[in-house]
Amino acid sequence: MKFLRQVFDKAKHNFERGGKYSKYFYLYEAIDTFHFSPNTVTPAKGAQIRDAIDLKRLMMTVVIAMIPCLLFGIWNVGHQHFLATGVEAAMGDKIRIGLIQVLPIVLVAYTAGGLVEVVFAIIRKHPINEGYLVTGMLIPLVMPPDIPLWQVAVASIFAVVIAKEAFGGTGMNILNVALTARAFLYFAYPTDISGEVWTYLGDGAKTVAGYSGATPLAVAAASTGSVVTDLSNFGAGWANEIYSFSNMFFGFMPGCIGETSTLMCLIGAAILIITGVGSWKIILSVFAGAYGMGLFLNMLGTNVFMQMPAHYHLVIGGLAFGAVFMATDPVTAAQTEAGKWVYGLLIGILTVLIRVFNPAYPEGIMLAILLMNVFAPLIDYAVVSANKKRRLKRATV
């Protein structure tokens, strides 16, 4: 590491003001600070609050929290491939298939979005920050395993330019960048990100009888008809038990790369909450909102979608992944403590409503979060205004 430090130090004068590569200074700085801690210090005078957390550590904590979802997703891509084709395979073979499919998506997302970040940093002459470390991982995790790589690149570029840089860069965006990338693909190329596209099969491969790559709600509609007679055994028989509640909780089902396993998402949630990076209030309120709305619809339900037991809503459609990694985005979420409860509850409620009343779009968590991103400032404004009114009332008594 000492040798690498010397290399950076010797090259630094070329990138400083007056150097022949001065316009690329922030690119140099980004690479330098990625490898080493910045050598800048805070002023010696004045009151200061010292904390070990900075943007880089914050973003790396989120990335670490996503690793369980990534690793499980790599295995599950291979597992679903062999399950669909009816071939017995060892764990190593499943991981190999998963790596072949998943790693290129991760690399393309980081490369395409990262290049846009570099270009904007050079043009605007501002430092390249670590914000894309998280976005570059989130985008692959919300993609189907067989998504065309060029679409990943286009979506990453679109999201960074439109949802982030157009608003001023990291910390200024009002929409979650990764969800914007997924929404762009859903509306621009729907056939490649909806329907039975959640399993990698390979050229010429055919699925065995009983296997389905559709979403749980689509399978429910086809399997149970209009009336559910046994809610305690709701998912029995769905595609040879692929969509049993336990399978959906552990993640042994088709879906986006990183969102099928509720268990892995909960492990990530524990990391975020323990480190203080993620808001437990938002996470809990999203689950509570979805569960409460599910119970309410159960009482009114006259069709299979309304009658789906409330706890099923918590393990399908990426709700857990959205609640843990998307809804808690510190930039686009509500900032007030009371506002976080309202924000999360509304996301959970809207997710279930979208699923139930628009079965063609079962993964309602994406639209729910994007919609609440827009209303988050209004929620905070209402909370702050209410607090002011209460304080003024006490002051005049």
Summarize the structure.
The chain has about 400 residues and is mostly helical. Helices cover about 60% and strands about 0% of the residues.
Description of the structure:
With 397 residues, the protein is an all-alpha fold. Among the domains are: 57-192; 261-390, no CATH class. Helices cover 62% and strands 0% of the residues. It has helices at residues 2-15, 25-35, 55-85, 91-124, 132-141, 149-164, 177-188, 216-224, 245-250, 262-274, 280-300, 304-307, 310-313, 319-326, 337-357, 365-396. Helix 3 packs antiparallel against helix 4 (91-124) and helix 4 (91-124) packs across helix 5 (132-141). The longest helix is centred in the first third of the chain and has 34 residues, at 91-124. It is globular and about 70 Å long. The termini are far apart. The model is unreliable at 224-231 (pLDDT under 50).
